[in-house]
Amino acid sequence: MLGRTPDLVVRGRMLTCDCLLGPADHPFHVSIREGAIVDMTAAPVLMRSWRFAFRASSAAWAEYWQPMPRPGWHDLLALTKRKEASLEGDLHPFMTHLQYFKDLLALPRFAPGRAA
Amino acid sequence: MSGAIEPIAGRYVHVDVGGENCRIYFEENGAGIPLVCLHTAGSDGRQWRHLLADEELARHFRIIAFDMPWHGKSNPPESWDGSEYRLTTARYTETILAFCRALRLDKPVVMGCSIGGRIVLNLAIEHASEFRALIGLEAADFQAPWYDTSWLNRPDVHGGEVCAALVSGLIAPQSPKAARAETLWCYKQGGPGVFKGDLYFYRVDGDLRGRLEGIDTAACPLYLLTGEYDFSCTPEDTVRTAAAIQGAHVTIMEQLGHFPMSENPAQFRRYIAPVLDQIRNHSKSDKQGVHS
Fold first, then answer.
1. pLDDT by residue for chain B (292 residues), tens digit each?
2. How far apart are alpha carbons A104 and A7 in whole angstroms?
3. Ordered DSSP codes for B72-130
4. A92/B173 Cβ within 8 A
5. Inter-residue contact A30 to A19 (CB < 8 Å)
6. In what helix (H) or strand (E) does residue B284 lie, and over which residues does it extend?
7. What are the pLDDT digits (tens) for B184-218?
């Protein structure tokens, strides 16, 4: 999906980091190099480190990915505020690229086949 | 349309705030009941441009939006020595009162959004008799913080980008793309530390819990309107606030978030036009000596 949004990769061109993203009970180690995802491996991976983690309940992701999400489920930080998601670790790469991560993690909303 | 000139006029007025001259930029349009509009934290009066240009409303209201000192085209005061900017309840209140006095406004209506909505509540507590009506958008006596404001002003994080990205989630997903981008652009253009300094009022100095009971809505009607997608000042925050104020009108606005007037002006108009009509009719009744 990221490959179909080259502008997002351009916005992340200064971003290189390893992070942990996804459902709280089975997140993924995601390796980002200059804005592009070069590896995504299901956790846990022995002794693999990450700088920050954004993990949410499966229900939260299902709501967040609705083409027109409901109030309170429509933003990553709305999810953390309602305690449906957690944000941990060194937040610097997340905060310097906050809109990038919001848009990256919202890509399933616009996946082909989903009703607008 | 090339060549179309909007009816909005912008000027500067010199205002004495706390014994100091502040050169304040304001825009206005229309004639009638003065309606002073207050922008959100970290933004400026451009948020009100659609309301300012509304021909129908401008027939009955003199619509005015000013940039708070440090915001938009209102510079920091001349005495600024580089120290950290922090907006306080007292300073904010004084600035609004001084601006209204400087323009010799006769019992204006004040409509504020977010921090502007919070200060409207303080105006209702302390200065109700000076206003015809008060409107708080995305207003509450208090709301739970949802991020650490120290991220807003530090040399290793781009202030404009992070301010805009933080508030982007407060815009309803139904908002037109261009209006969303324009709303965020104002945040990208704010001066360093200004959004953070405004939030000092919001988070630290302006907690109004326990102070609402004295508000007299018979002396000055109070309207509170909040967008359903605002997770900063939630509908529950506003409803709780209104419940503590006898006679307060409360409306939850569908398909709107924290910036109703700029993120989706057409949708906002559906909610604000009836409120302004009501204020106008109330004002007419008062003039005729009829009290409803």
1. 799 999 999 999 999 999 999 999 999 999 999 999 999 999 999 999 999 999 999 999 999 999 999 999 999 998 899 999 999 999 999 999 999 999 999 999 999 999 999 999 999 999 999 999 999 999 999 999 999 999 999 999 999 999 999 999 999 999 999 999 999 999 999 999 999 999 999 999 989 999 999 899 999 999 999 999 999 999 999 999 999 999 999 999 999 999 999 999 999 999 999 999 999 998 877 776 544 3
2. 11
3. TT-PPPTT--SPPP---HHHHHHHHHHHHHHTT-SS-EEEEETHHHHHHHHHHHH-GGG
4. no
5. yes
6. helix B265-287
7. 999 999 999 999 999 999 999 989 999 999 899 99
Residues A20 and B194: their CA atoms lie apart, in Å, by: 33
Token output for B90 = 């007292």
Q: Token match 């326990």: residue?
A: B210
Q: Are the C-beta atoms of B244 and B218 separated by less than 8 Å?
A: no
CA atoms within 13 A on the CB side of B27: 22
How much is the ipTM here? 0.95
What are the tens digits of pLDDT across the range B214-247?
899 999 999 999 999 999 999 999 999 999 999 9
Annotate B149-186 with DSSP letters as a single string.
GGGGSBTTB-HHHHHHHHHHTTS-TTS-HHHHHHHHHH
- CB B37 within 8 Å of CB B111: yes
The answer to whether A95 contacts B151, with C-beta atoms less than 8 Å apart, is yes
Mutate to test the interface with A, among B138, B143, B146 (most CBs of A within 10 A): B146
- The encoded tokens of residue B209 equal 């819990």
Give the span between the Cα atoms of B268 and A91, in whole angstroms.
35
Which domains are seen in chain B, by residue range?
9-287 (3.40.50.1820)
Please report the residues numbered 14 through 53 in chain A whose beta carbons come closer than 8 angstroms to any beta carbon of chain B: none
